[in-house]
Amino acid sequence: MTTESPKKKVLIVITKSNFGGAQRYVFDIARNLKNIFDVTVACGGNGLLVEKLQSENIQTVVIPFLARDVNIFKDIFAFFRLFRLFKSQKPDIIHLNSSKIGGLGALAGKLARVPLIVFTAHGWAWNEDRGIFSKTLIRFAYFMVCAFSDRIIAVSKAIYEQGLSLPYAKNKMTIIHNGVENIEILDKSLTRNMLPEKSLSASFVVGTVAELHPIKGLAYAIQAFAELKELDIAYVIWAEGDERKKLETLIEKLNLKDRVYMPGNIPDAALFMKVFDCFLLPSLSEALGYVVLEAGRAEIPVIATSVGGVPEIIEDMQSGILVHPKNTKEIVRAITFMFENKEKRELMANNLHASVMEKFSIESMIEKTLSVYEG
């Protein structure tokens, strides 16, 4: 009589527990690998990520003091908590996500003698607007990531190429694009109730799904709408975050309260994206742009900044429109073009949909991630 070998233990770790792109990645990895491995996810806080994981019967662990911003004392406490977690759980693989958890986790994992340490780069934090002290600590964190990780996944070619500047990284890095599931998206006629009532009178609705954070460039998008007052257009931002008050003040200052709306987070927003006539991503930095993949899956036309891996998804004027970051005038021209050219925008949306479903499937992402775990 033979007995089955116990499943290998995989411990996936991420700093924040909200549900942005990196958290969506963690959720997709955990959910699709839970039948192959004994999967646990550790993170800071009790946000939506934890709720969604628990609904899939995936074990979660909350790491006290783990937060995105640099705080030496809290980070030291978080490091020792990670070390104790690795020693007690004895995972075969730890899979780290985000710069902070990458540095803390890679060192803790090496000291705890974890057999395989994997890090996924969802972007490099030196691209963000931070002080010199924070950037120095981030560089040191990446040094530890590259020194102590066994394998590094870059979610786009752009991230891979930027990462080549780091020591020890070249021979450890591989590109695995994010992927999305081929799920049914609700038809536009069934999703009108997801829009603020006042926006329903507009003949054309532009939408954004993003965290209200400076890196998402939403202020530039809002400023663009101040120059689009002659067009019958509304702008709806499904998001929440620290920049809400600042953006609300900007909307009021520009007299856009009857054109720009921020109703907050929408659970499972990807299912309702067909309600938008056009999707806008004005980010200043992106690793790849999960939300662009979701817009492509929903077959809606996309305007996005040409940052990070976004040009790996969108071919300018063929499957969407690319604009430069922080360029309000280009956003104005792109929205005007989409508004005035129905046939062309529908063709772009069709092209993007075909490309996303062919090149950015979740099956491909999982298969390649498995090869990293097992290779």
UniProtKB/TrEMBL annotation:
InterPro entries: Glyco_trans_1, Glyco_trans_4-like_N. It comes from the Bacteria. Residues 19-181 form the Glycosyltransferase subfamily 4-like N-terminal domain. One of its GO terms (molecular function) is glycosyltransferase activity. SUPFAM superfamilies: UDP-Glycosyltransferase/glycogen phosphorylase. PANTHER family: BLL3361 PROTEIN, GLYCOSYLTRANSFERASE. This is Glycosyltransferase family 1 protein. It comes from Candidatus Taylorbacteria bacterium CG10_big_fil_rev_8_21_14_0_10_41_48.
